[in-house]
Specification:
With 386 residues, this protein is α/β, with parallel strands linked by helices. It has helices at 58-63, 84-93, 96-117, 132-149, 187-196, 200-219, 235-239, 243-253, 273-286, 303-307, 317-321, 326-341, 354-363, 379-384, and strands spanning 2-3, 8-10, 15-17, 25-31, 34-40, 43-50, 55-56, 70-73, 77-83, 153-162, 168-179, 183-185, 228-233, 261-266, 289-295, 312-315, 345-348, 367-369. It has 2 domains: 2-94, Jelly Rolls; 136-385, EAL domain (TIM Barrel, Alpha-Beta Barrel). The structure holds ligand C2E and magnesium ion (2 copies). Ligand C2E binds at residues 158, 173-175, 186-188, 191, 207, 232-234, 264, 266, 293-294, 317, 349-352, 369-371, 376.
Length: 386
Amino acid sequence: METSATRRKYSAGEIIFAEDDEPTTAFLIESGRVAVSTIQHGKVRELGELGPGALLGEMAVIDSAPRSATAQAITNCELTPIDRSQFAERLASADPVVRALLMSQLTRYRSALARLTGDAQEEGMPSAHDDSGALDKIRLESELRTALQSDQLEVLLQPIQHIASGRIAGFEALIRWQHPQRGQVSPNEFIRLAEETSLILPIGDYVLARVCDMLVELRGLGRESLPFIALNISARQIDDPQLIDRMLAHLEERGLPPGRLEVEITESLVFNQSQIAALIARCHAAGMQVALDDFGTGYSNLGPVLTLEFDRIKLDQSFTRALDGPRGTGLVRAIVAMTKALNCEMIAEGVETQDQLDALREMGCDYAQGWLVGKPISLQEVLACG
Ligand code: C2E
Ligand code: MG
Ligand code: MG
């Protein structure tokens, strides 16, 4: 074997690696042909022949098991070695579901190979790798698809109070999954999962349709002013150029004024400012308001509030909680002043105590949302309250 900095040359007949060797390197075949074989019941059995462009010996470096075959140069060969760390780092950062798929295939292949060579230790299925977390995720995702079609998803409404008047001005729509075995699954768990695939789009459409139906029922109460309902929008929905058109179509179908539907965009999603600016402009042209959700938790960057014309800023609940100390109080007071300077309204999230509400009122915060005002409840419960 001749070694250069990046390539290794093997002469015809030379062994590149042997069965049961410890794996250190995989190879990319640049030129020449390589035979892969194994010993079966004491005899050499050819498993295949590889040529330029093929990976060689990658299995063992992925799962660190000893080489399960021997590789021998058929002709003179040139190979680029690939260090195991090049695979290991990429595997570690890969999607856990993709990793689980790869490991499952590898386990199955090794087990088939062991049966072929008569090396199988025991009959039965190959043992599973430690990928139960990833498989759990796939299972949950399949169940979520079913949930969407079988009424397991419910949209609750959490009241938002206008602090000065004490009136319930609107609600935030919050999704819940009533799982038949797991009980109630938090949106923090399943919305992220749905966002990893395009499943978030039908879920978002489902919530949109439910919210518009709810507005129709609230209108039926015949109150002087119809409360607004705020809708949380996910990253993939922001990328959907039809989103606003679909919202308007739902509203128009039901004869609802666009101003009663609000859009909430969480701060961590505001990195493509021109895209968000275009979305806000479309909402404003249609008469819809847009709120910046979870303010203070994203990248702690004031750029978006400087350039984007949000109508409302929702103070994250961690700041509301901090109102019990002087630093938190000072910071929230400054945020209220900033909100006013920007001509925005402020909604404080996670208001749980009367002291917090009193402090927010004294500072001039416009709205409060939290358990003190009311927990998320079903539309039936809202209607029952009148
Ligand atoms: P968010 O939009 O910031 O919603 C506020 C969260 O704070 C809700 O959690 C609500 O139940 C909770 N909360 C409200 N008041 C209080 C309080 O006084 N104390 C405490 N400790 N918590 C309070 P939830 O319902 O678990 O939702 C979590 C997140 O999931 C939401 O955060 C939102 O980002 C997302 N989400 C919920 N529904 C949807 C949806 O339909 N679509 C999308 N894309 N995301 C949703
Ligand atoms: Mg929200
Ligand atoms: Mg929030």
